[in-house]
Q: What sequence folds into this?
């Protein structure tokens, strides 16, 4: 009987290879070297949801990455989840909502220009939409949750043209007012926040502005999709509840950024939270509700396919990602 | 500010719809109604791995499903993982191993005939191989872990022809000897085990038998892939260690059946374990090693994409499935 440890397995492998090299009569198929398409469908009542992955980030973790926790503690926590330290690899997951009458895209990813800049790590939304058979021109509505670049940059292509040429662009009114206000920009609390103001102005081209329609918290912005007030991450940060046929789903956008950090540690303050105290209060309120109601949730920075449930634990909230289903 | 509870969200939605029905000028794209292809690639050193999903089961949970735990307790545990009770939905995940010289398929799923019988829930391996661009005729080796139907039935197509016509079929020698022994069959401990003997005889057609090559525990059966002794689930149940370039992966087959049941509760005895006491001993030994070494593991019944790591907890082992990566 072979001892089942890795060390003996490797030693055993070396011995076996020396004793009896394996040969093949047929040529091997080539390695593919590319990932499968990154989309996933499921139903909420009669509404068809499609998570469309835009890729992942590769952000260095420094002492400011979590404002109130030192880098060493963040690294230790990442390792406890079997992730590499020092670099934050966070997923980006826009989502399609098809209610049978309208096709909406909620958030747009890092944008086509990011694809080469990131060496293919992100900026993949248009590729994955194509893999899912979705023509960008068939999208009726683009709905933004907030004005951070990874959510809005995909509104425009690398040549600054409209990525979704026939879509009305629905934006939270509070969010739009804040990031387009010159007075607010002049009072930006940090260079990072000032850069967000400038980026919003870059992405809100004349063509984009022509198609904008601000929406209010509490408004049903398409049949089955209602805007929910979840400020803190940004002043107008908005979540969406999808409801159909007695089922419902909470699209939490960035109520937590990556759940494997900020749901499990709801008191951690992410560097991109404009008001981290308000963000934490919103997070605890939403997550207490999600856990108590066992409500299905999807998050922009959740691991693909980005839908699941959350359990309240003694220290925070643990995400349970849905099991891949071969049928809808 | 909108109250963020599901009840008020639904009430608010009804009010908003009554107040301002949303209309669209453009026709919606049709709902797709089908899932994305179920395959996922990653590297172990220079070896390219591809998980190819065969679908999921839908098995009723009765008091014998876990031999030593009543149905009510199994149901309560499933609900704690946000899974539905009464029906066990367990994934099937064969895996391709391409070492650049040979392309091997480890385990074959429930078989093409299962596709219609299960109404598309399983029997999807050939479809997902096609989606991954893999011609069944290009597979050099089929490697079986053991002789349960969900691992071996895919050797033959619905018309009983060879599914992988050019492949040598590598089978664990202990396993083959047991399930093809008429004396062992005459002593089968239950109708379920007797049915496994008969199914093996059905699948081991003359064409299959011509291509069989038994292998031994400890043998490197293709460069980079070594057979590991993990008996209990069946007498010849075999795992495989994949090693390349200083990286390694433990393909655990059914050391635990579904990890969300049997890794988290290693003392639970699955109804299909031929020797549940030996299976538990193997499981604890392998999982203690996987947790201590933080070794990457893939399981046939792990949630797709079926690769991850395991953490030792106070009550068992918790699986952490890998985060989907858009690049290899």
A:
């Amino acid at each position: 009987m072979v001892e089942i440890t890795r060390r003996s397995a490797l030693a055993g492998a070396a011995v076996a290879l020396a004793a009896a090299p394996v040969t093949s009569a047929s040529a091997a198929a080539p390695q593919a070297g590319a990932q499968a398409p990154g989309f996933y469908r499921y139903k909420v009542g009669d509404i068809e949801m499609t998570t469309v992955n835009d890729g992942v980030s590769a952000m260095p973790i420094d002492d400011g990455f979590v404002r109130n926790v030192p880098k060493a503690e963040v690294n230790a926590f990442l390792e406890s989840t079997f992730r590499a330290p020092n670099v934050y690899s966070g997923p980006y997951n826009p989502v399609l909502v098809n209610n049978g009458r309208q096709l909406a895209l909620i958030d747009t990813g890092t944008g086509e220009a990011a694809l080469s800049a990131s060496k293919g790590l992100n900026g993949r939304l248009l590729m994955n939409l194509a893999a899912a058979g979705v023509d960008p021109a068939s999208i009726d509505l683009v709905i933004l949750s907030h004005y951070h670049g990874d959510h809005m940059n995909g509104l425009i292509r690398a040549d600054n043209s409209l990525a979704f040429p026939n879509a009305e662009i629905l934006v939270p009114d509070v969010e739009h007012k804040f990031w387009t206000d010159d007075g607010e920009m002049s009072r930006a609390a940090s260079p990072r926040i000032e850069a967000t103001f400038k980026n919003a102005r870059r992405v809100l081209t004349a063509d984009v502005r022509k198609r904008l329609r601000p929406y209010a918290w509490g408004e049903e912005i398409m049949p089955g999709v209602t805007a929910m007030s979840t400020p803190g991450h940004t002043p107008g940060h908005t979540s969406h509840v999808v409801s159909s046929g007695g089922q419902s789903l909470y699209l939490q956008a960035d109520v937590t950024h990556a759940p494997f950090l900020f749901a499990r540690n709801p008191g951690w303050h992410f560097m991109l939270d404009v008001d981290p105290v308000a963000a934490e209060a919103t997070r605890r309120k939403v997550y207490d509700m999600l856990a108590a109601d066992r409500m299905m949730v999807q998050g922009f920075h959740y691991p693909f396919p980005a839908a699941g449930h959350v359990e309240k634990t003694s220290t925070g909230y643990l995400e349970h990602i849905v099991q891949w289903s071969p049928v809808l």
